[in-house]
Amino acid sequence: MKDFDAVAVGRRVLSAEAEALSAQSAALGESFVRAVDLLNAAKGRIICTGMGKSGHVAHKIAATFASTGSAAFFVHPAEASHGDLGMITRDDVIVGLSKSGEARELADVLAYAKRFAIPLIALTADPNSALGRAADAVLQLADTGEATAEVNAPTTSTTLQMALGDALAVALLERRGFKPQDFQVFHPGGKIGAMLRTVGDLMHGFDELPLVTAETPMREALLVMTEKRWGILGVTDTAGRLAGAITDGDLRRHIDGLMEHTAGQVMTPGPKKTVPPGMLASEALALMSDPAPAVTVLFVVEDVQPVGILHVHDILRAGVM
Domain containing 250: what range? Predict the structure, then answer.
């Protein structure tokens, strides 16, 4: 087919789906608010279900809910009719997906939800379908047609279902105040896990801190600085607070008569850059890279007390970029 243009077809499909997403966004309203309320009020799990392509999307939506702190899983509607309905409790909420809303396999799930007053959210193109009529909240798919109009294969409709699932998950996590630190619990591995590691996850603890008091003679302070091998020395006050730091630059500036000084006399008061243990490691890396001034080591401070130390190599080894 010499007239076939793959790029043109690809652009047509992507444009059709982008337009459909814009239409879906414009159509969001009270039913979406109702759906988020139902999800937030559920004491149990979020049960996602659907047949065929809608089932595949339901799998993904369940995974997204689970990864953002909401207990969720997929129940196959056909398997539900053969015993898996027992997996759904009165405390759960069901998210049912079907473009037509008439998938026969959903019938037992709908009846079960009605029997036990289990809240039901529908993602369907037809609010008057069996699924739509049974639902407590209907998220109607935008009426834009599939990207393959000639054969009507599920394309645009499944894109809209997936996007609505993402919208529900994000709205729910923001309503619940879900934080990046919470997200890290569910993503300990891979790039996402690395980017969500905290300073406390990577820092070296108190025993490895290069610390001396302000009254410590420089002869003793240099021994501590050399032993700990961080290239920096923290100086504390009488209350154990980090009062300053000594770097190679400070040593050079006081080279004349260095051994006659105390650590407090040589230090640069109040380190300009310290971090709390709860800060994301990626944020600490950005602070290190800030040229005012750029540093390779940070003291970790909690309640004005030094609790650890972090080197740029610790962050890079963890895969944080």
Answer: 199-317
